Amino acid sequence: MKIEKQYTTGQIISLTTLRILIGWHFLYEGLVKFYTPSWSAKSYLSGAVGPFESFFHNMAQSAWQLKIADLLNMWGLILIGLSLFCGFLSKPFKIFGILLLLMYYLAYPPFFGIGPGMHVEGSYWIVNKNLIEMAALLVLLFFPSSDVTGIDRFFNNNRKSKL
């Protein structure tokens, strides 16, 4: 059963604002990495804790895996950020954003008994900023705004008019 979504003005403004703010966060983080020539994820991956620490430590120790991780991290952040900020191809990039945040979450899981690691800010238990941002992207995935207030709107309108 397909239900046509009808959002109120307040819902559109709220969803669009959330999408743009998350997009800005991703974009800024990616650009900082891009414009910092010495940046690498090596120290982040080497300090990972928890049940997946060996996966992340191995990635940090392998030159080619680290190079791929650095490129995917930097360009993933930039492209996800641009997509969300502009509302262009946002559905697949929301999924990519959730997966990237999941990797961050698994590298430093905020579980009881696991050391905090050097890349963790604050004191968390289960819920941290990565999990919250994943949940926000999930909300945006199921309640999209880019087809109303983003570049996706033009592609959706063209597709509907051709039908």
Relative strand content? under 5%
Order of helices and strands: HHHHHHHH
Mean pLDDT: 86
Shape: globular
Q: Percentage of helical residues?
A: 55-70%
User: How many distinct domains?
Assistant: 1
Structural class computed from helices and strand pairing = mainly alpha
What's the quaternary structure here?
single chain
How many strands in all?
0
The major beta sheet can be summarized as: none
Number of helices: 8
Task: Enumerate the spans where pLDDT stays under 50 for 5 or more consecutive residues.
Answer: none
Rg is 18 Å
Distance between the termini: 19 Å
How would you characterize this protein structure?
The chain is an all-alpha fold and 163 residues long. The protein has one domain (17-153). Helix content is 68%, strand content 0%. The chain has eight helices and no strands. It has helices at 9-34, 42-46, 53-61, 63-86, 90-107, 129-142, 146-149, 152-162. The chain is globular. The protein starts with 8 loop residues before the first helix and ends with a helix.
